[in-house]
Amino acid sequence: MPRDLSSVKLDRLNRLMRLLYSGRPVSKGAIMDAIGYASVRTFERDLAFLREAYDAEIRHDQTQGGYILEGRGTFILNFTLTEREILSLVSGLRMASHFLPHLAKDADDLWTKMRSSLPESLLEKGETLGRCSVVSLPVSRMDSRAFDLLVDAIGTRTNVRFSYRSPYGSERATTRVVSPWGVFFQSHAWYLWGSHPKTPKGVTYRISRIKTLHVWPDTPFSPPPDGMRIDDHASSGWYGYTGDADIPVEIEISPPLAEIVQETVWHPTQRFEEGEDGK
Questions:
Q1: pLDDT tens digits for 111-151?
Q2: pLDDT of residue 236
Q3: Widest distance between CA atoms in the chain
Q4: In this structure, what DSSP letter does residue 24 have?
Q5: Fold of 7-71
Q6: pLDDT at residue 80 in the model
Q7: How many percent of the chain have pLDDT more than 70?
């Protein structure tokens, strides 16, 4: 940290960086009002100080009429967390430990680091949630290296090559080159959504069945169909993944299940209608 930096100025710089950290262009007027600058010159000096002392990348976009933070450099943001944010953090760490067992130790280490900077009152609520909550959904075993490699390949838009065998198909494993588009968890296992030469919208591969996985960068990457995201492909709770046809389906459900099924979003397009005899 640069020397001779008063707590008042540091607080002002911190609030300015938090405002810019939203990623959206922020106008000079909005910054002046939000931070409470008495003069434009003070604001401009703060900008210059952040750029020179911390290597912060802040540029003014004339077309969008505002300042944009493209990199915070060495500036470390100081922030406070609310009670609900702490509970969200603990819940997320618990979920990560359960659904991604190979990250359990990392999640515990992160919580240990967070504990040292949390107020006692918020810390106790987080610890209580951790002690009294558990996720009972089973998770299929998988190769942690394969999962991490697939996530990296999705981020870099790089093809992968692997051996795969489905119990519903041939008894022999086949080797295939796939453009990975996304991963998702459903029921009790992690799945990869990726390209397939015979299916333009891609297919689903269960990650626990992927063997001998390698990055395969010397082949062209096939992007997902226009407008399709991993959310669109994996949003159905019925294992009915997106295909080429759009087929309306009606299901009649009798009590007591008629009331129970309404507690869950099984498909983003679902709609319930009250029928006779509680159906």
A1: 888 777 777 777 777 778 777 777 788 888 999 999 999 99
A2: 66
A3: 77
A4: S
A5: Arc Repressor Mutant, subunit A (1.10.10)
A6: 73
A7: 95
Full-prediction pTM beyond 0.85? no
What does residue 115 show for φ and ψ, rounded to 5 degrees?
-60, -35
Q: How confident is the model at residue 238 (pLDDT cuts 50, 70, 90)?
A: low
Computed over every residue of the chain, the mean pLDDT equals: 86
Q: Comparing C-alpha atoms, which of 13, 43, 10, 11 is closest to residue 28?
A: 43
Q: What is the pLDDT of residue 84?
A: 83
Going by the DSSP 8-state scheme, the letter that residue 270 receives in this structure is -
**Domain at 144-234: CATH code:** 2.30.30
The answer to whether the beta carbons of residues 216 and 160 sit under 8 Å apart is yes
Q: Per the omega criterion (within 30 degrees of 0), is the bond before 200 cis?
A: no
Give me 130's structure tokens.
Answer: 């951790």
11 versus 129: the higher-pLDDT residue is 11
Closest CA to 219 of 179, 181, 182: 179
Specify the 3-state DSSP secondary structure of 83. Answer: helix
Contacts of 18 (CB under 8 A, 6+ apart): 77, 79
3-state secondary structure of 27: coil
32 with 47: CB under 8 angstroms?
Answer: no
C-alpha separations of 66 from 34, 47, 54, 62, 223 in Å: 14, 13, 21, 7, 33
Is the CB of residue 69 less than 8 Å from the CB of residue 23? Answer: yes
Domain ranges (residues) in the chain: 7-71, 83-132, 144-234, 248-279
* DSSP run (H or E) holding 203: strand 199-206
Q: Please state the separation of Cα 146 from the chain's center in Å.
A: 19
Asked whether the beta carbons of 194 and 146 are under 8 A apart, the reply is no
